[in-house]
Amino acid sequence: MKLGLLIILAISLLDCADDNSITQTKLGGKWVDITTKTDTLTFLVVSEHDYVQLDRGLEMTNGVLRPKNGSGPYHYKILSDKISLRWSLSASGDYNDYYFNQAGDSLIVENFYDLKSKGAMQTFVKTK
């Protein structure tokens, strides 16, 4: 009986690991926002942790050229039709969920980074 439960548990864990690697394989690389052409998402794995790097270009703030708000690395988890994100530079450990749908070389993500467009859907395409 115990052996049967261990086998079922092992198969379940292996199945979950396969799902995560397939997702990372599909997402891996750089995605460009079709509207702005400057906002990009780069999905990567660093020390066995999933990150997405958001680059938004630069803007002048108080006479200094700086990355636009929201730029930087985010920890992420894929939850069916949602992506759960936590800005890596935040003191908070809370994740927030946003709509997420990837099909082929197209990625639709609920805006999580631009306060003026919060909740709007952004379409990204994968670069070659």
Describe the structure.
The protein is of the alpha+beta class. It has a single domain, classed as Lipocalin. 20% of the residues lie in helices and 47% in strands. The N terminus is likely disordered.
Strand content: over 45%
Outline type: globular
Output the number of helix runs.
1
Helix content: 10-25%
> Which sequence of SSEs, written as H and E, runs from N to C?
HEEEEEEEEEE
* Sheet of most strands: 8 strands, antiparallel, barrel
Brief description of this entry?
The chain has 128 residues and is of the alpha+beta class. The protein contains one helix and ten strands; from the N terminus they run H-E-E-E-E-E-E-E-E-E-E. It has one domain (28-126): Lipocalin.
Characteristics:
128 residues, 47% strand, 20% helix, Lipocalin, 8-stranded antiparallel beta barrel, alpha+beta
Topology overview:
Elements: H1 2-27, E1 29-33, E2 40-46, E3 49-55, E4 58-61, E5 64-67, E6 72-79, E7 82-87, E8 96-103, E9 106-110, E10 121-126
Antiparallel strand pairs: 1-2, 1-10, 2-3, 3-6, 4-5, 6-7, 7-8, 8-9, 9-10
